[in-house]
């Protein structure tokens, strides 16, 4: 029996022309281990994507999201990804990383390069390809 794709809600959080990304843990049981990606995660039973996003952002970075706007849904054989966008309204130093190895604000140029150096991991790490595409798609719509 084939597994169904997972369903997740993810946030494109932006501040001063930069995007907040998480360096995912190096766990072989997750998608894109050790890659930079968007914050968010799985929907719990009975949860809407909006509820899941709010819960995940509190769990992952102690951030209460406001004014999240639905951007797009991306579907592939691995996942259905509900993508929302919102401004990051606090300094990145105020966020408390509760999941992942690192977090950083990346410029559009960093996103286009497809890799970013993590000082905490002391290495250059790739962006998850779907996450890179989502941000690049979003950036074409933002003036």
TrEMBL record:
Top-rank taxon: Bacteria
Transmembrane stretches, by residue range? Answer: none
What residues does the Nudix hydrolase domain cover? 1-129
- Print the keywords alphabetically: Hydrolase
One Pfam assignment = NUDIX
Which terms does the record give in the GO molecular function aspect? hydrolase activity
The UniProt similarity line reads:
Belongs to the Nudix hydrolase family.
What's the name of the protein? NUDIX hydrolase
């Amino acid at each position: 029996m084939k597994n169904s794709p997972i369903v997740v809600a993810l946030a494109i959080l932006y501040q001063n022309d930069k995007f907040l990304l998480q360096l995912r843990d190096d766990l072989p049981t997750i998608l894109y281990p050790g890659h930079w990606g968007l914050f968010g995660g799985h929907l719990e039973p009975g949860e809407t994507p909006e509820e899941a996003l709010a819960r995940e952002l509190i769990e992952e970075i102690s951030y209460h999201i406001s004014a999240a706007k639905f951007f797009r849904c991306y579907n592939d054989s691995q996942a259905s990804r509900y993508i929302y966008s919102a401004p990051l309204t606090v300094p990145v130093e105020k966020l408390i990383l509760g999941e992942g190895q690192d977090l950083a604000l990346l410029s559009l140029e960093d996103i286009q390069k497809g890799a970013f150096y993590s000082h905490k991991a002391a290495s250059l790490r790739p962006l998850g390809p779907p996450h890179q595409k989502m941000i690049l798609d979003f950036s074409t719509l933002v003036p």
